[in-house]
Design goal:
Largest sheet of chain A: 3 strands, antiparallel
Radius of gyration of chain A: 38 Å
Shape of chain B: rod-shaped
CATH class of one domain in chain B: Mainly Alpha
Strand content of chain B: 5-15%
Strand order of the largest sheet of chain B: 1-2
CATH superfamily of one domain in chain B: f41 fragment of flagellin, N-terminal domain
Strand content of chain A: 5-15%
Shape of chain A: rod-shaped
Strand order of the largest sheet of chain A: 3-4-5
Oligomer: heterodimer
Largest interface: A-B, 70 and 59 residues
Largest sheet of chain B: 2 strands, antiparallel
Radius of gyration of chain B: 39 Å
Number of helices of chain A: 10
Number of strands of chain B: 6
Order of helices and strands of chain A: HEEHHHHEEEEEHEEHHHH
Distance between the termini of chain A: 23 Å
Structural class of chain A: mainly alpha
CATH topology of one domain in chain B: f41 fragment of flagellin, N-terminal domain
Number of helices of chain B: 6
Number of domains of chain A: 2
Number of strands of chain A: 9
Helix content of chain A: 55-70%
Structural class of chain B: mainly alpha
Distance between the termini of chain B: 28 Å
Chain lengths: 471, 296
């Protein structure tokens, strides 16, 4: 065996130590990079060359030729990734819903002395005060004003909830374009990864980037992924391929879009697939939570307030229009409008409080019976199918919002804890440990020194052979 | 071997610190607002009860106020009717004097004049106004109810009000009448005084003596009215007392539902602070060192 072989073997050792050092450096550099998986160097011994002169029977042929790099592997557990993404979809869904419900709770501002509940009571109490002095224009104005305050409370909450609904809807536009852009990045990464794999390599860092995008896509729309050819992945949302790795890059993504063609959901644009216009079946993720908050929670709240306001308006108007004002005006409505958004006080009464109907007979200024009839509306079981009065009906709206909000918060908290646990397990596989890398660095350093020493020793042996023996 | 990369440690620290800080914030909010329920989701069932109590308490305060107004109206009526009784006492004295048959014409003329004045006084009492309400005009509270007909010596008194009750709400579904029937109360009195005056002026002794029964009957009528007012007024007092007891109960029940138990919250705040500080301390110590510190 030639002396120069140990030189070459020594060089493979140097190179291997260099790979280990480089990988440790890469790991340390990316210790805090989101989605980065720890990489480790897989080395293999270079077997001895077998030739016709140097067969397996020759003991010399049993000496290998050093070390070679087999692959740089990323440490990742696919099963944990799948679990993480399932939980991530639910977590983000409930989080979005809980946030929206909390905002709705802030809008209602209950239990308190500023909300609709207190204003309903104030309204009836102003009429109770009025019964003691129906002749007084001051007391009449106060009663009319209490109606205006109540109407304004309904209007304000209706407007705020409407604004919240539009804001949720707007955020869907942002979410949809984010999803499309992430899908585009996944498709582009697919191509790069395929090229690397076909060339016989791995593309660890690109795969990390893609996995991070898949995490985020599952958080957005509950996307799942399935492996395609040559390291590529397909991204699937509700049974439909968002990214199809078998198609060329230009057509690999089937983007989501907002369409305003019927059927609309609740008056808002639907989310459909661009390719065939069918509705996207999004079952978890931020988008699902936002849609639920918009269409179920906030819409339900607005509808409930509208029903309450509508029933209230017609009951008060029936009672009021049967009565007589100080000037014997009769047949007037107290409220205008039909729901929480449109309720207002009849402006005639605001400018002419004497027309407010307090008496059930003409020419009887001290007669408070019409006011008494209006007061009677407070106790009347007009709502929830004849089982609740106006205050109870409003309380039940508030407490059912509370139940929904508490439930969403609990679910979000549970999912968050679960997600944290799974992420910990995931990180314990893929995370970079600085201590570990330090040890790897030391190992690489020592290997390098030893390999260098092999080369020095070979050098000196060659020196001996060439310069000392032949002289 | 389970690995513990740096990321796990920092993520866990962040998650735990967040959780602890969340607990701390919620206890602090309870203490700062003094309320256990700051939004419906804090306790949906208790929220509904709190809202019901809020309404009940506002109603009770209102009923107390309405009952106060009603009582002052009834008191005004009672004071007026008490003055009317005084007038009638005087009428009765004069009737007895005039009917004794021992008076001369001058004295009788003087008594007739005084009786005519007393008619005026009774009318004035009937026109008692409290605030902007004629309290004996029925529901026509802005109309002067009693108007003498026929100049300085009126032959009769016209009633321009009505006999309708004024009922104000003093409870949920219950009402209290706060006026007396002005016509029914004053008409017999006024006609009795006019009848006696006319009998005195015409020196009709038999008529004068017969009028005594009429005036007694009218006085009985007024006493009955005052009795009714007294009973209603007592009823309102009882109501106010009952409401104030009820209010105390409602307020304490509402407080139990929505108010922070300060001692308990203070203890919980302390615990949350300790846990948070411990977590901070542990985090600071744990992340302090790595193998890098020991390599040269």
């Amino acid at each position: 065996m030639a002396l120069s072989v140990s030189l070459d073997t020594g060089v493979t050792g140097l190179r291997a130590a260099q790979y280990e050092m480089d990988t440790a450096a890469h790991n340390i550099a990316n210790a805090n990079t989101d989605g980065y998986s720890r990489q480790d160097v897989q080395l293999a011994a270079v077997p001895p060359p077998f030739t016709q002169f140097n067969g397996p029977g020759n003991p010399i042929s049993q000496i290998g030729l050093g070390v070679q790099l087999q692959q740089v592997r990323r440490d990742r557990d696919q099963l944990l990734d799948t679990q993480y993404r399932d939980i991530r979809g639910l977590n983000d869904q409930y989080q979005a819903q809980a946030n929206a419900l909390q905002e709705a709770e802030n809008t209602l501002n209950e239990p308190g002395d500023q909300g609709i509940g207190a204003q309903i009571t104030n309204f009836f109490n102003a009429f109770r005060d009025l019964t003691s002095q129906p002749e007084s224009l001051v007391a009449r104005s106060a009663a009319v004003q209490s109606g205006a305050t109540l109407a304004a409370a309904f209007n304000r909450e209706s407007t705020l909830l409407g604004q919240q609904q539009s804001a949720l809807d707007q955020s869907l536009n942002v979410d949809v374009s984010n999803v499309n852009s992430m899908a585009q990045q996944v498709a582009a990464l697919n191509v790069q990864i395929q090229q690397a794999v076909v060339a016989g390599g791995t593309a660890n860092d690109l795969m990390d980037q893609r996995d991070l995008l898949l995490d985020n896509l599952s958080g957005m729309v509950g996307a799942s992924s399935q492996a395609g050819a040559n390291g590529s992945v397909d991204v699937i949302v509700g049974g439909h391929k968002l990214v199809d790795s078998t198609k060329p890059l230009a057509s690999a993504v089937d983007p989501l879009q907002r369409t305003n063609t019927p059927p609309l959901t609740n008056g808002f644009d639907t989310i459909t697939w661009t390719s065939d216009g069918t509705a996207a079946n999004i079952t978890t993720g931020t988008v699902k939570g936002t849609i639920d908050a918009r269409d179920i929670n906030v819409t339900g709240l607005i509808n409930n307030l509208n029903t309450l306001a509508g029933g209230f308006i017609s009951a008060i108007n029936t009672a009021h229009s049967a009565g007589y004002g100080l000037d014997n005006a009769t047949g007037l409505n107290f409220f205008t409008g039909t729901d929480a958004a449109t309720i207002g006080v009849n402006q005639t009464l605001v400018s002419n409080p004497e027309k407010l109907a307090t008496s059930d007979q003409p020419n009887a200024p001290g007669n408070p019976n019409a006011a008494n009839t209006i007061i009677g509306v407070q106790g009347a079981l007009l709502f929830n199918g004849g089982t609740a009065n106006v205050n109870d009906s409003y309380s039940s709206i508030v407490s059912s919002l509370g139940v929904n909000a508490a439930q969403a918060q609990n679910l979000a908290t549970n999912q968050q804890t679960l997600l944290q646990h799974i992420d910990t397990s995931r990180q314990s596989v893929m995370g970079v440990s600085i201590d570990e890398e330090m040890a790897n660095m030391m190992k690489a350093q020592h290997s390098y020194e030893a390999a260098a020493r092999v080369i020095t020793a070979s050098d000196s042996m060659l020196d001996t052979l060439i310069n000392k023996m032949l002289v | 071997m389970l690995r513990f990369p740096d990321r796990v440690l920092s993520d866990t620290v962040r998650f735990d610190l967040n959780t602890n800080l969340g607990n701390l914030t919620s206890v602090e909010q309870e203490l700062a607002t003094g309320k256990r329920i700051n939004s419906p989701s804090d306790d949906p069932v208790a929220t509904a009860s709190v809202m019901r109590y809020n309404n009940d308490i506002a109603l009770d305060n209102q009923f107390t106020r309405t009952a106060g107004d009603a009582k002052s109206r009834l008191d005004a009526a009672d004071t007026a009717l008490s003055s009317l009784t005084d007038v009638m006492q005087r009428v009765r004295e004069l009737t007895v004097q005039a009917g004794s048959g021992t008076l001369n014409a001058t004295d009788l003329t003087a008594i007739g004049n005084e009786l005519n004045q007393l008619v005026g006084q009774a009318v004035q009492i009937g026109n008692t106004k409290v605030g902007n309400q004629y309290i004996f005009a029925g529901t026509k509270t802005t109309t002067v109810p009693f108007a003498p007909v026929g100049g300085a010596v009126p032959a009769s008194v016209a009633f321009n009000g009505d006999s309708n009750p004024i009922n104000v709400p003093t409870g949920q579904g219950t009402q209290t009448r706060v006026n007396v029937d002005g016509n029914a109360t004053f008409a017999p009195v006024l006609s009795a005084i006019i009848q006696i005056r006319d009998a005195v002026n015409t020196n009709n002794t038999a008529g004068i003596q017969g009028a005594l029964t009429t005036i007694d009957n009218a006085m009985d009528g007024v006493s009955q009215q005052r009795g009714t007012i007294g009973a209603t007024s007592n009823g309102l007092d009882a109501l106010t007392n009952r409401i104030s007891a009820e209010l105390t109960t409602f307020q304490s029940q509402r407080s139990q539902l929505q108010d922070t138990d300060m001692a308990d919250a203070a203890v919980r705040l302390n615990q949350a602070q300790n846990v948070y500080q411990a977590a901070l301390g542990a985090a600071a110590k744990a992340v302090q060192q790595s193998l890098a510190d020991f390599l040269h």
